[in-house]
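Lecture 7, part 2: worked example. A protein chain together with beta-L-arabinofuranose.
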Amino acid sequence: MKYSKNPITDSIYTADPAPMVYGDTLYLYTTHDEDELVNDFYTMNDWRCFSTKDMVNWTDHGKIFSLDDIEWADARAWAPQCIERNGKFYLYCPVHKKDGGMSIAVGISDSPTGPFKDLGHPLVDEPDWNDIDPTVFIDDDGQAYLYFGNPELRYVLLNEDMISYDEKVGVCKVPMTEEAFNKGSHDTGTSYGEGPWFYKRGDLYYMVYAAFALGQQNEHLAYSTSKGPTGPWKYGGVLMATGEGDIFTNHPGICEFKGHNYLFYHTGELPGGSLFHRSVCVAEFDYNADGSIDVVEKCSGVSEV
Ligand code: FUB
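Predicted complex, written out as structure tokens:
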């Protein structure tokens, strides 16, 4: 049996993994940490796509969307997620606006590997810096949800067109309680930090996220569950612990592919790795019978499927 090797690619630094299964292929969208830093901060200008049919052999589709394609944005091509609806692909991407602040852009394409074309204006644009790390999911009844946010978790109800949302309902703020996200050291007093990943398995909704434990600087991954798509959320536990030598961020992306469950995450483990030079990795995991998930260990790779 063949075995893949983490990280997924060693040709560039990648972060913020977002898997999407479409047909017999797993598409993996990532951000791209540039080698050369500007102002010693995250220097990220484009989004990348990789695909596989067997978890071992990966195709690099290169740059599929970039800041150059978004006339109104000038920096911070941060954590994206892609979804298909009615034959079109929608890539939700946080960006920094030329006139200040973070907001969520949408790239639209007829193909999962792009090229993506910008909607032309921000989809979500609030007067604060909370609009990052979008995660999108279409429920069984057809309602699409876009969750996002740091330090607060918020959501909008996307319209069928996927490029606008129900303005009457507006941007909804999830109650940031300890019951929902555990006690933690982030700004809300909970562990919820950023990087939400929203999905449903059976009748249970999952919110996986990057989290800050009390007294811990680096992010770990945690999860909460709910019986409904908009909560109330119940803290579930740690999904991936921080370890010795870990970097400041981690970022979850979860999918089921060919009967196997995968957690994508990022580390600083490539040569030259740092908090601004990250690399996307993958681990396989299983759910317990009650839907709970045990701590997933960082690993060296996964088996061929
Ligand atoms: O990669 C830039 C930011 O760092 C992401 O938006 C966060 O989730 C964290 O990974």
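Residues 98 and 257 are 39 Å apart (CA to CA). Residues 178-181 form the longest helix (4 residues). Keep this in mind for problem set question 3.
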